[in-house]
Structure formats: C-alpha cells, structure tokens
Amino acid sequence: MTDCKFAGDAEVIDFARRHSGQFEAGATLNVEEIGDGNINFVFRVFEPGGASVIIKQALPYVRIIGEGWPLSQDRIRIEAEALMLEADYCPDLVPKVYHFDADRSAIVMEDIGAYENLRHALVARARLPHLADQLGRFCADTLFHTSDLYLDAHRKKEMVARFINPDLCKITEDLFFWDPYCDHERNNINPLIHSEAEALWSDEPLKLEVARLKHRFLCAAEALVHGDLHSGSVFANAEGTRVIDPEFAYFGPIGFDVGSLIGNLLLNYAGQSQLPGDDAERQAYREWLLQAVATFWNTFSGRFLGHMEAHTADPSLDLPAYREALLADLLADSLGYAGTELIRRTIGLAHVLDLEAIEDAQQRAQAETLALRLGRTLILERRAFDSIEAVLERIREWVTR
Ligand code: SR1
Ligand code: MG
C-alpha cells in the first residue's frame, strides 16, 4: 500500500483516463497539483476547454510535515466510503465518486471547480443565499440516517466497525482537546496574546468542560460524523454547496459536526472585527454570519426532528419527550464543540485564514482574543441556552459591551 505515489504527470493522466469514464479516447489531457490542505495530494486532470476530474491521493504521512508524521492510508478508503454513503442521502451536496483504488490509495471524483472554498468566500464577505440551509440539510440527513435513531442495531454496529479511524481521530483528540490547554510545542501563538493563552492553561473550570467534550468525542458513537467539517471542507457558490474531505469520518458525537460548522462561522465573525474594509459593511456581514448560524441550526434541528418523528423505528426511542431532550443535548454539545474549534484554530497548530489574513499583529491579537473568549463562553455556558437565538443574543450583547 505504501509504494503508491504517482511517478509523474503521465501516470496521473493515465490513471484518470482509465478510471474516471469522463474523457473521450485520445483526448489531450493536462494535470496540475492543486492541493492546499494539510494532509493529502490533490490533482486536477483536465482537457483544455473540456471535461475535468479530481484525483485525491493519500500517502502514508501528513503532507505538510512529511515522513516524520506517519498516517494510515486507510483514511482514503474511509473517505471514499463516507462520500458514497453521504451521497445516498444528499447526492446534490457531495462530489460524485467515479472510482476508488486501494492499491494507489486514490479516489477519482467529480471536479467541483465551479464552487469556491468557503473559507476564502467568507473572508471576502460573500453572501451565499443557500449555504446555511444546505449545510443544515447535509448534517440532518447524513447524521440521522447513520444513527441508532434510524438504523437497525446490528447494521449500526457493522458500520461503526467499518469506520474505525484511530489515526485521524488521534489528530483531533490532540489538536482540539489537549494542545491548546497546555504549553504544547505544536501550538502556534501570536506573542501578543500569550497571556490570554496562559490564562486558558490554568483555567480549571474550562479544562473540566473540555475533558467532558473530549470524553464524548472518544466514546459517543452516535452517528457517522464527517469529522473535519470546517470552512475549508465546504465549497459553495450562489446556487449550491459541496461538502468534501470526510477522511476524518468515524462514529462520534453528532454535535461535533454541527459545532465545527458553527465554530467556523464564528471564527469568521471574530476575524471580521479586524479584516480590512468599511466598518458598516463589516458589521453588516457579521450580522449575516449570525443569521447563517441561526438558519443552519434551525434547518438542522427541524429536519432532524422531522426524521425522528417519521422514521425512528426503535419504539423505546420514539418518544416526544426524548426527541425534545435529545435536541437540547445536541445544541449544548454543538456549542461546546464550536468553542473548542474557536480555541484550537486561534492558538493551536492549524490556523485559519479568517484570522491569519489580518496583517497587523496588534489587530490580529484583538480578533484572536475575541475568538478565544467566544470559545470559552460557548464551552462553559453551553447548557444554559434553550435556543440558537438565545446564543446569538448573548454573543451580540457580550461582544458590544
Ligand atoms: C495535521 S492536520 C491539521 C488539521 O488539518 C485537518 O484538516 C484537520 O482539521 C486537522 O486538525
Ligand atoms: Mg481536510
């Protein structure tokens, strides 16, 4: 499995030609390496002015680190199987898989080049009219249909076994729930907020709540979660949305996916306090982001409730009071995981453009401080909110104070 690297462009092109079914025989094809993620290699093979496909290849290590950080190549099988499962429920929201090749550790899939990386779109203050409801639908439909609320208990456990993903989960266990809460060498901290980071390292109530969230991440096999649902895993335009990169997929807490998306919208909200531009325009965009959080949660929770009412087969779970209690737990969990995403993207290893695009270190420190404080508030107060609107009111009130 390890000796799978393409020897050169000709091999990539030949692979795409044989396995995509998208090119006419004899078509002249070109290839470019377009990967800008942390972990894998991504090639685009295209006929100038014609068809194109994406090849994603997983080598046995982390791309940005090299062989010093080995990583199981089983992640690419998990990604291919997760994409195909997601397509069962949301075919319009994921790229089509044309071929999975275990020997090459590669997936050949649809080119989603007509869509823009959501992180870049948010930094540029794009208003995407369908984004929040489409992401709400993606989460509700994929998470419900892979949970015990829908699946037969034996089938669910077979699926849990297929998606055991220890290497990728360990990355999250460390980067989300450990590094930012201690003076870890992997952290990357703006010296101007070092004292804010130090305050977190000695914040015992916060560390207790992060331990609770980590423990649920470790053992709450609620549904097949995407596992890395940040803005860089979403592509979008005015019409549609595509969710990519489920290589971190495993059976985990439903709130982890929901919270990752909320956390990423709020990271942009924090960044927009200092990103360049007209003040009124920035403030209006920040309000758009809060509305997007509300639409996302309300779509997710409304559809999830509808699915429970219509399709929960297990009579012991099919109770109105349980549905209500579960949605309250999911909101609290989602807010907690949103908080951990805000904190780890600010002082942990893997930073994001929403904050990094602020060139002036002093201004960036202000946005980073806001992200840390928002994250801390969401983690500590997550059980106090009875609706997403109450969360947003708290953010508005607290941020302008
Ligand atoms: C070394 S991996 C760093 C981050 O990139 C991935 O996309 C995940 O978000 C991970 O935490
Ligand atoms: Mg990724």
Write the layout of secondary structure elements.
Layout: H1 9-19, E1 30-33, E2 41-46, E3 52-57, E4 61-62, E5 66-70, H2 74-89, E6 97-101, E7 106-110, E8 116-117, H3 118-123, H4 131-145, H5 153-162, H6 166-177, H7 194-201, H8 204-219, E9 223-225, E10 234-236, E11 241-243, E12 250-252, H9 254-271, H10 279-311, H11 320-347, H12 353-356, H13 361-381, H14 388-400
Antiparallel strand pairs: 1-2, 2-3, 3-7, 4-5, 6-7, 8-10, 9-12, 10-11
Helix pairs in contact: 4-10, 6-8, 9-10, 9-11, 9-13, 10-11, 11-13
Structure description:
There is one protein chain. The model has no long low-confidence stretch (mean pLDDT 96). This protein has helices spanning 9-19, 74-89, 118-123, 131-145, 153-162, 166-177, 194-201, 204-219, 254-271, 279-311, 320-347, 353-356, 361-381, 388-400, and strands at residues 30-33, 41-46, 52-57, 61-62, 66-70, 97-101, 106-110, 116-117, 223-225, 234-236, 241-243, 250-252. The longest helix has 33 residues, at 279-311. α6 runs antiparallel to α8, α10 (279-311) packs antiparallel against α11 (320-347) and α11 runs antiparallel to α13 (361-381). The strands form four sheets. A five-stranded antiparallel sheet has the order 1-2-3-7-6, with helices on both faces. A hairpin with a 5-residue loop joins β2 and β3. It is 53% helix and 12% strand. It has two domains: 9-89 and 96-110, Phosphorylase Kinase, domain 1; 116-400, Aminoglycoside 3'-phosphotransferase, Chain: A, domain 2 (Alpha-Beta Complex), CATH 3.90.1200.10. It is globular, with a radius of gyration of 21 Å. With 401 residues, the chain is α+β, with helices and mostly antiparallel strands. It starts with 8 loop residues before the first helix and ends with a helix. Bound molecules: 5-S-methyl-5-thio-alpha-D-ribofuranose and magnesium ion (MG).
